[in-house]
Specification:
Elements: H1 2-24, H2 30-113
Helix pairs in contact: 1-2
Length: about 130
Amino acid sequence: MKTALALAAAAAATALSLGVPAVAQDTQSPGVKETIKADARTVGHAVADSARTVGHAVADTSRKVGHEVAEKTAPARETIKDDSKKAGAAIAHGAEKVGTSVKHGAEKAKAAVTPKGDAPQSSSPPKPGS
């Protein structure tokens, strides 16, 4: 494909270089000008077709490579996914343990501060003179 593209480009350059002297010399017959025009058009179409063919080949190759990369990285993605789940579960478990520990500590502190008398304490303050 690269060879075809190179040949088409060389033909286009040749046709265009032949076209410049033809424009400069108006003494040439109209048939020569038309022939040069037709040749340039043909070369242009050949270059476009070759470029399209090369573009499609590159796209197909890129697609295949992309699929291969996706297939080869699938196990790594799954491992990362599983490790992330495990890490998240471990963090949640640790946070739960810390929360429970703090709760028990707060209950012990509250129990230590609360008076333990036989008579229940009234919630209102004592009246003066009683």
